[in-house]
Amino acid sequence: MIRVLLVDDQPLIRSGFRALLDLEDDIEVVAEASNGQEGLELARAHLPDIALVDIQMPVLDGIETTRRIAADPALTGVHVVILTNYGLDEYVFNALRAGAAGFLVKDIVPEDFLHAVRVAARGDSLLAPSITRKLINRYVSQPLPSTTGPALEELTSREREAVVLVAQGLSNDEIAARMVISPLTAKTHVNRAMTKLHARDRAQLVILAYESGLVTPRNS
Questions:
Q1: pLDDT digit string, tens, across residues 137-160
Q2: Sign (positive/negative) of CA torsion 109, 114, 115, 119?
């Protein structure tokens, strides 16, 4: 059962998402919150698999809520998915940097919304290749000074290759085909790289790859 926490200051939005989720046999809404602070407290109380978090809220916004969830050792199993009205913008990018697994636009069609919840529950990123390219082009065209230099040295050559391909938006199956290995081995390389770089998920791995200088936009 996928346990979901809804965090949005608009009751109509929460009720709409809840109505969709309640129809699914494998998904359960465990709690609702009207602001980020309340959402953080409910996340600690219920330990959901997914926290659907609005980007702009009173008391505590989605970025800070995401950052605090990501920093809490008790909430390592909580995958934050940002809800936004506008698509990929600076707020969403900052939330991804803070540890969000991905984002959804609120006018998403129901089928895609339910699919996204299940994808996030598996621990996969909600960053399609097209979104990854937009993120790269708009926000990481100038790599920041590395904050993960020592950790990069711990990556094997195959793990580095896998990280580069993740940063280009490839799935595990596509990485496997490119590296001529099995999908399971590709997943292992990616997961080990995430562990060594202390990335919560693939979305954060993409950002770390660019901010560390391991990958640059012209390589993508």
A1: 665 555 444 444 556 788 999 999
A2: positive
